[in-house]
Amino acid sequence: MKYTVAQIAQLLNAEIVGDASLEISTICKIEEGAPGGLTFLSNPKYTQYIYSTRATAAIVNKDFVPEQEVPCTLIKVENSYLAFAQLLNFYQEQQAAKAKTGISPLACIAESAQIGQNVYIAEFVSVGEHAVIGDGARLYPHVTVGDEARVGARTTLYANVTLYAQCVVGDDCILHAGSVIGADGFGFAPQNGQYLKIPQIGNVVIGHHVEIGANTCIDRATMGSTKIGDYVKIDNLVQIAHNVEVGEGTAFAAQSGVAGSAKIGRHCIFAGQVGVAGHLHIDDQTTVGAQSGVTHSLKSGVYLGSPAISADRERELIVYRRRLPEMYEQLRKMKDNQ
Amino acid sequence: MKYTVAQIAQLLNAEIVGDASLEISTICKIEEGAPGGLTFLSNPKYTQYIYSTRATAAIVNKDFVPEQEVPCTLIKVENSYLAFAQLLNFYQEQQAAKAKTGISPLACIAESAQIGQNVYIAEFVSVGEHAVIGDGARLYPHVTVGDEARVGARTTLYANVTLYAQCVVGDDCILHAGSVIGADGFGFAPQNGQYLKIPQIGNVVIGHHVEIGANTCIDRATMGSTKIGDYVKIDNLVQIAHNVEVGEGTAFAAQSGVAGSAKIGRHCIFAGQVGVAGHLHIDDQTTVGAQSGVTHSLKSGVYLGSPAISADRERELIVYRRRLPEMYEQLRKMKDNQ
Amino acid sequence: MKYTVAQIAQLLNAEIVGDASLEISTICKIEEGAPGGLTFLSNPKYTQYIYSTRATAAIVNKDFVPEQEVPCTLIKVENSYLAFAQLLNFYQEQQAAKAKTGISPLACIAESAQIGQNVYIAEFVSVGEHAVIGDGARLYPHVTVGDEARVGARTTLYANVTLYAQCVVGDDCILHAGSVIGADGFGFAPQNGQYLKIPQIGNVVIGHHVEIGANTCIDRATMGSTKIGDYVKIDNLVQIAHNVEVGEGTAFAAQSGVAGSAKIGRHCIFAGQVGVAGHLHIDDQTTVGAQSGVTHSLKSGVYLGSPAISADRERELIVYRRRLPEMYEQLRKMKDNQ
After folding, report:
1. Which of B163, B203, B223 to mutate to test the interface with C (most CBs of C within 10 A)?
2. Which CATH number applies to A3-80?
């Protein structure tokens, strides 16, 4: 990659403050900038670094006004974070030209499987009977695609991903290493003091443009389908139980979990280590703070705590709880004075 | 599958209310029923759906009395959930006839390993020296069975399961994809400001009829064995540390964890994201609510909170905590009035 | 293994109380001791067992004074836990002589990869283009080493470990089964109500003498490197997000998680199920108790709670919270009396 600041500004429809002729050869963090490097400033916590960065140019928000001299050229855009993301995507598309293709002779593909055009199937991949692999899909080493499972076009399955039989992944998805789609839901009926397993005869259906983190698990439905909507983004080590439905554009941070049959709305955000109990309904555009425990259905809003309540109220209670010793002491004194 | 309602009722020893001659060709959820479908009603939350289901027949509890007309035939049994589970098992047994068998030429099996009758060993399975695979065991692609490890009869190891050397899994178990049995326990002795690794020379011994979820980890003992009793059911992403012992019929929901050397009784239930500290004793038939943190040994009972206390008391404290602002205000007023 | 008590005492520079000529053939737990067994006593909770153990000898702290007759020979040392760890290491080194070596003809190694001396590379291992495998490294079945990734000397990667492209693991490390190093960080820019993926073009750099637990995930940096210092010890199912930096000698217990760009000091301890929010700084020698949620940067100290505060203060608040019903009742009475 070799571009001038002017070329990049043109790509981003941006305004330049400084030398437009400088050459950019790499992308770098603002606090670790190097000559030839392009960085960006979005989080105000990092503003301090722009006055000392060694980067050649920085993408900043239009409304950024330096409080002192800045040692690099500024590329001013509406939304610096978004512009930087676009640039990284542009960079990665160019890298993609070098991407691996072809089907390894060391893959094991059932004769009845249907394989699309321009796929990459690595060594030691297993593709089951009647499975379907879409055009341009990419399967890294040790991926297992079960019988009758389907992988959409341009979808990437990194190493060790397991897609159980009959499960479906849409187009343009990314499943990271070790993720498991379609293991049996955790369903047992108590019988004579033991558990009788409830066979899990449903599947998992994942939409398009979904990203699923490393070692995340999405269980197959008892009957019907566990459903993950389009544009859902799931981080690492997340648990999605059987028969859960997740609406379009919802995001789960790492180590969060959703119990069986919960219905999660669209454009919700679940922070890290959140738990959602089974059979609940979560409205669209609901946000739940880290480590919260959702024990009842939620209307759109922001929630926090275990059990989760309105975030404002929980934050208030956290403050009041810290006054408990003082309150106790006051009470004791009043009692003594009576 | 094609049965009449009458045939199914006979199988379940059930009473029929409605047309016994109707034909059933599939199993379905009550809210998504379709003609030819058989569903069930157990959770009272779903009662509303029985008045509008498109299913042909529904298994219900004997004591269910409809409040309005029901559009399907009712099959009345003692315990509808259990009856449905039995039916699903019956269905799955029929499916099992189609199950894969045989040993793939692409598996890698040590010559000294001992392989039972009627096994399924998929491509890319690795079986170590002196390992033992029981009759009817099923090993999916990318399973690793370490040296001297043992897999019981009729046990299924799904894709990517790792059974470390010397570990033992009993009969009729199911280990889901990505589960890791026998990794080193987390044991270090501080020495000169660093950690000296304590070699973990024990193993894991899993009983019969145990189910273990996807990406769950059970560590090998420092010495002796980490022990999982018969009929234990463990969900996904659970952590069982070294030298833990789990009694018969105990269940762990997803993302729960037990620290080293804890002794867990029989028929306990740990809900999602629970943590249990090391070296504790948990009595038989103890239930611990979601996200609780168990910091001391527990007598039989129901517990909640972090740190976990009696669930009744914790629920009471949750309510009182919400009165804190009101209490604080009252105190302030009283003080002002003094 | 066959040694006399005298030989072991000499190895540990220890004092013997009892018969020094007895023969030791195995290592055992104090509560399950057997003739010929050597055990140790460190945790005072286990002191009771030394009076009834069937072990032949026990390593104890110098200052241990039995309160009644002890049925085994005592081997007295400065630090019994450390001495026992040394002995186990000695034992394991002898076992290591039997360790597997050689490169399986069923491994798939890119021609451009650089493979060190005396390595063990098992069947179904995949090593990518220009990857580097150090001398004495050990790769178990189904390991994936991505393009241009590097594995240090004497480092062990157990079954199913995935090392993404360009990631680096130092010397003398142990990565347990299913761990995933270098999956994409969870970075998205909201755009028109959807998420635009931020390509993650950095890598992960792991130091020397690091141990990483089963199914643990360490994400690659957006730019630059996610950094794990020397001697860091990470348990199972832990999440380390993109651009996190962890200082030397820090330990994470199972199921803990650190969000993006957090800077963690040296010699910190994070107990089980702890969460640390993004972009925080944690000072050296900070300890955080189980299930805590760290929401702001921390100075050296001991912390507890969600949100985490000083452990002493949190423990005090836990006690006061339990007095809430009593306080509420007192307030009510006072009000009635006014």
Report:
1. B223
2. 3.40.1390.10
Count how many pairs of residues, chain A against chain B, have C-beta atoms within 8 Å: 177
The DSSP letter of residue B177 is T
Report the run of H or E that residue A127 belongs to, with start and end.
Answer: strand A126-127
Is A242 assigned a catalytic role? yes
Residues 235-274, chain B: which have Cβ within 8 Å of C? Answer: 237, 239, 241, 243, 255, 257, 259, 273
Q: Sign of the C-alpha dihedral, residues B184, C122, C145, A233? A: negative
Helix (H, G, I), strand (E, B) or coil at C216: coil
> Counting beta carbons within 10 angstroms of the beta carbon of residue B36, is it exposed (0 to 12), middle (13 to 18) or buried (19 or more)?
middle
- Does any CB of chain B come closer than 8 Å to the CB of residue C228? no
Residue B269 CA from chain centroid, whole number: 10
Q: What is the pLDDT of residues B196-210, one digit of tens each?
A: 898 898 999 999 999
Domain assignments of chain A as residue spans, ordered by start: 3-80, 102-310
At the top level of CATH, the class of B102-310 is mainly beta
Query: Which of residues 290 through 329 in chain A touch C, CB cutoff 8 A?
Result: 290-291, 306, 318, 321-322, 324-325, 327-328
The reply to whether omega before B199 is within 30° of 0 (cis) is: no
pTM, whole model, 2 decimals?
0.93
Pick the CATH number of C102-315 from 3.10.20.310, 2.160.10.10, 2.130.10.10, 3.40.50.2000: 2.160.10.10
**What does the angle CA B173 – CA B174 – CA B178 come to, to the nearest 5 degrees?**
135
CB neighbours of residue C77 within 10 Å? 21
- On whether the CB atoms of residues A53 and A68 are closer than 8 A, the answer is no
Helices B5-12, B80-96: crossing angle, 10 deg rounding: 110
Measure C114 CA to nearest chain B CA, in Å: 24
**Three-class SS state of A258:** strand
Cβ of A257 within 8 Å of Cβ of B251? The answer is no
Cβ contact, residue pair C183, A236, below 8 Å: yes
The listed range with the strongest mean pLDDT (A99-103, B58-62, B300-304) is B300-304
Return residues 117-156 of C near A (CB < 8 Å).
124, 126, 142, 144
Q: Say how far apart CA C314 and CA C64 lie, in whole Å.
A: 35
Residue B218 binned pLDDT confidence (cut-offs 50, 70, 90): very high
**How many beta carbons lie within 10 A of that of residue B37, not counting itself?**
22
Q: Are B246 and B240 in contact (CB under 8 A)?
A: yes
| Span A231-244, average pLDDT | 98
Cα–Cα distance, A89 to A11 (Å, whole number)? 12
How many H helices and E strands in chain C?
A: 4, 40
The CATH code of the domain at C3-96 is 3.40.1390.10
Q: Tell which residue, A270, A216, A277, has the closest CA to residue A247.
A: A270
Cβ-defined contact of B201 to C27 (cutoff 8 Å): yes
Residue among A165, A198, C255, C234 at smallest CA distance from B216: C255
**Of the partner residues C180, C295, C324, the one whose CB lies closest to the CB of residue A178:** C180
User: What is the spatial distance between Cα B136 and Cα B172, in angstroms, rounded to a whole number?
Assistant: 9
Q: Dihedral (C-alpha) A275, A277, A283, A286: value to the nearest 10 degrees?
A: -20
pLDDT at A231: 97
pLDDT, tens digit, for every residue of C61-70? Answer: 999 989 999 9
Give A93's pLDDT tier (boundaries 50, 70, 90).
confident
The residues of C carrying an active-site annotation are 242
C102-315 shares the fold of C3-96: no
CB neighbour class for C199 (10 Å; exposed up to 12, middle 13-18, buried from 19): buried
